[in-house]
Structure formats: structure tokens, C-alpha cells
């Protein structure tokens, strides 16, 4: 892998990680703490939505992000020809 190709691969990887971390932060901190009062006006399964995000929603989003990251990294690996 050339130095330029290696740099492009790393930039794509970092961009993907930052995107996933921003989504995780917004959901866990934003929806679970900052917007809890606004979200509590809605209900999901009999529970207030703010409570649900603080207790369950951020975990589900985190699990989704793990699988999304793995899927996208496999695509990046194939694109840059570094797959296993």
C-alpha cells in the first residue's frame, strides 16, 4: 500500500470514527441528559422517552454503531484493498 493510499485510508477511518462518536455523544449525552425534559413529553412503550434514552436507547444506538462501523470498515478495506 502506497504512502498516499495509506493516508487516504487513515483519513477515511478517522472520519468514520468521528461520525460514530458524534452520533453516540448526541444520543447518550444530548438525549439522555440535556434534552430529557423535552423528550419526557413523549412515551415509548409506557415509559417517558427521556428516561428510555437514558436507560436503553443509548445502549441500542451504541450497538447499532458497532455493527455499522464494522460494516463500513469492511467496505473501506475492500476499497483500499486491505481486506483480510
Automatic annotation (TrEMBL):
| Residue intervals of the Sodium symporter small subunit domain | 8-82
Q: Which residues cross the membrane?
A: 12-36, 51-71
InterPro entries listed in its UniProt record: Na_symporter_ssu (IPR019886)
Keyword set for this entry?
Membrane, Transmembrane, Transmembrane helix
What is the name attached to this protein's record? DUF4212 domain-containing protein
Q: Which organism is it from?
A: Leucothrix pacifica
- State the organism's lineage: Bacteria, Pseudomonadati, Pseudomonadota, Gammaproteobacteria, Thiotrichales
